[in-house]
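quick one: adenosine-5'-diphosphate bound model?
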Amino acid sequence: ANLRKYMSRSSRFARLQRVKCAVAGRNLYMRFSCSTGDAMGMNMVSKGVQNVLDYLQDDFPDMDVISISGNFCSDKKSAAVNWIEGRGKSVVCEAVIKEEVVKKVLKTNVQSLVELNVIKNLAGSAVAGALGGFNAHASNIVTAIFIATGQDPAQNVESSQCITMLEAVNDGKDLHISVTMPSIEVGTVGGGTQLASQSACLDLLGVKGANRESPGSNARLLAAVVAGAVLAGELSLISAQAAGHLVQSHMKYNRSSKD
Ligand code: ADP
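yep, here:
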């Protein structure tokens, strides 16, 4: 109860949920998890943790605080802890794509997509081990939305962590696609969200600023928008790869001399 009280002292939106402790040698690493309303929460949680540490220091005078943040945090780095414990918002987004859409719009078929996904998943886990998790280009989408909506683009590192899964459903006719993104770090207040263009983009998405009735729901919806956009991008890119159109479409659209 005391840790909760000190965590919330600097902001009524900072609510302590959990503290996870890990020991290594003579050091104790503490990972604080909080809800932070519509803020991404980096400043808010840092302030709260400082207050908690000051309180603990009074109670344990021989405690030596080495740093407020370390690699158990873990900000702007790829780290297993964020995959497993989550950081920011953890989102699963799914869709069923009908057979005729896979054929007409994506110009491929369900079986080719599923086969490609299996091969990519194997390659992904061989290269990146337990941290792997296959995704095609989630970081492109995440970084673009982060810049457009005033997030911290450096946090695309963990926010782009994504497992993309494709399966055949409805007797093998239709495609089920899901993206699992355990650590999307977004806010609709604080940071760069007040800048003119960025706040206009948040407004377009219907998530500008603080949600007064239900604090946190704007930030949660923004995380869902990120995952939905990643799902669409994954579908498009994987389809282009399955259909063999990747280079051809790059030449046509990316190298076009037309504006
Ligand atoms: P961050 O921690 O993401 O860096 P800041 O703490 O700098 O963000 O900014 C959030 C500020 O917005 C805090 O001062 C907080 O009290 C205020 N605020 C107002 N409404 C909300 C809300 N709905 N959710 C979170 N913070 C809010």
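The two ends are 60 Å apart (CA to CA).
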